[in-house]
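Now for a specimen:

…
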Amino acid sequence: MVKLLIIADDFTGALDTGVQFSAHGAVTSVITDPAFDFTKVDSSIQVLVMDAETRHLEPEQAYSVVRKAVEHALAAGVCCIYKKTDSALRGNIGAELTAVLDAAGTDRLPFIPAFPKMNRITQNGVHLIDGVPVAESVFGRDPFEPVRHSRISDILHQQSSLPVIQRHPGDPDNDSPGIQVFDAASDDDLLRIGWRLGVSGVRLCAGCAGFAAVLANLLALSGPPPQVPALEKILFIACGSVNPVTRRQLDYAEQAGFPRFRLLPEEKLLPEWLESRDCAVKVKYWYKTATQKGVCILDTNDPPGGPDAKAVAAERGLDLQQVRIRISHTLGQLMRRLLDNGLEATLMCTGGDTLLALMRAVNVTELTPVCELDTGVVLTHFTYQRKNHYIISKSGGFGEADLLCRLAKLTGAGTMQKEDISCLRNTI
């Protein structure tokens, strides 16, 4: 029976939150259908995570999707709902938190957006990324959903007229109506907030993956610990993120010897290229490289000094949203073709759009998070054409520069020789 519904605004966020419960042994499933029929969920599922895919929608649309999901869940008897938000506060946060309150018919919602393990904390109502106010961080320059404010009340009030009450972990109980934003700078702060709110106080709440780990304990969602499977000793990385954090990881891996292939603007933006002979030839070459080297990167970022996707998009009259959709669709289709050609690899996707595009390409609507391989880096299981596959996912802004190298070590990096991966020489 579903004891908790988590509603996320993108796919990687759904997974990095759902895995917090898998880690405690709770039977957890991630779905990609916002219109999911909660009355038909498998009786063994304790935690259901929905990727509502609302981050890129207009605020009114996001409000509608979230409100309907909450209403349907409550009608089906789901007793606890967690509105998962982006840990960098991108997206339609004000509209979506308002939707939760309106659907539930209540007037108070605890909101705990901090994720201390990723150095994302809230102090005096201001959200900080690595000690920098979020609007001044890389997320303030996000090409799709830039964060314009650092004070959380200002972010919420862009889309909501609800009162915002600033709370501290040690504050006495406060029944004031509105969105109650909690400061938190450590995991201990998150624990204190959780135990102060109690079970009744978190039946309807919001936050990111950071507070999700507290919910697992507070709601006693547990079971046998998950078993980490033996992974394919080939790591194939598909990158659809433009975040500088991810680009640093790609550069680091390339310098360490990882083969890296960048899609040209025409390849990633023009649908007809997918049907070309050139595309078929390149897919075969990427397959061959991955099987021979054990690691391979397929990247959608423009190379320095190379052809500019913006220019091609302008020539074709494509706006930013169309560019985003076309690139993720292309990457998803290419990954499916690699699987159809027989690629047996541990897959990795960076960015929620990339992961969702792959799942749509292979017609998969349900995944099972297994474990975290690093903070915010999730190993997930899915089935395609009667074969089990494992995929690693992460948000574009997560991870240290050497992350891909460490993941290659973890998976064994296939047939690639140790001396071919300089960053692994002293660690394997």
Q: What stands out?
A: DSSP finds 13 helices and 18 strands in the chain. The longest strand covers residues 366-374. Confidence is low (pLDDT under 50) at residues 414-428. The two ends are 43 Å apart (CA to CA).
